[in-house]
Each structure stands twice: as C-alpha cells, then as structure tokens.
Amino acid sequence: MTVAQPPAITAAQDRPHRAAVALRGVAAIVLGALALWHPGYTTALIVAFAVFAIVDGVIRLVSALRTTRRDRGWWLHGLEGVAGIAIGIVTLRGVHSLITLTWTIAEWSGIVGILSVIFSIAAWRRLPDAWLLLLGGLVLIALAVLLLWETRAGLFSPGLTLGAFAVLYGVVSLVIAVRNPGRSLRSA
Length: 188
Known about the structure:
The chain is an all-alpha fold.
C-alpha cells in the first residue's frame, strides 16, 4: 500500500506567507525601536504594544485564511491571530499601568509562543526551516517567563525589556522570511 505524499508547495505559493512573516518582523522591530527610544513612557508603550498585537494578529489571521487549502496547520496561525487581536484590544481598553502592561505582554508572548512551538513541531518534517519557527516561539516563551518570574524587570525598565525582545523576535522573523524559497516545501 502506497501512502500519497502531499503536493509540494511552490516558492510562488509560499511567497505571500514569507511576506507576512517579514511584515510581522518589521512591525516587531519598529515596536522594539520605539520601546528602546522611550523606555519609560507608559502611554506610548501601551499604545505601541496594543497596535503591534493587533497588527501582528491581523497579519497572522489573514495569512492563516489564505493557506486553508494547502496547510492543515492553518488554524494554529488563525488562533495566534485571534489571540493577538483580542489581547491588543484588551490592552487598549484596560491597561493603564506598567504592571498590567508587563503582565499583558507576558500573556501575549506566552500564548503566541506556545502556539508557534506547537506549529513548528507539527510542521517539522515538511518545512525545512521549522527550527526557526521553533526558535521564534521559544524567544516569545522566554519573554513571558522573564516577565512573570521577574516582574520587577518589566516594571523597572519596561521599554528596555520589551524593546530587546521585540527586536530579537523581529530579527528571527525576518530570517524566517528570507529563507531559501527555492527548496520544496511539503503541505501538511
């Protein structure tokens, strides 16, 4: 009995996904730069994080909906997007202090990080660079743990903490986006 292999995803089919990941990376780097530029300005950090979470969520959701036919893991990206949008809206409406901002960022990075790790494990055999997706998820989980474990670090220097991790996450996202598109990708 022969098991049918899923059809290969061409570089042209993968291009919109890579563009979405690059856009998320650029948004993260912009958030990180703003946070590093104004590390103690609470209102700017709250609005910047909320806008980033919403933009990142919309990009993830649109990317997920565009891949429903060729990727069985599309719903994980969709769930990441919905979580990001929800946390962004909650941030705009209910975060008014550094402590709530710190914990909200920890929640977002923990949820999206765990979902990214699950997706990377599910896609391990079919994506040649799933390890980069795993790395991005682990960076987000590390941020969540850092902020929950040592909340004072987030309170003492929320802009520096958020900025450093946002820039790191943005760089990892850009590396994922510019990976070698010539390699064949397998659909899940």
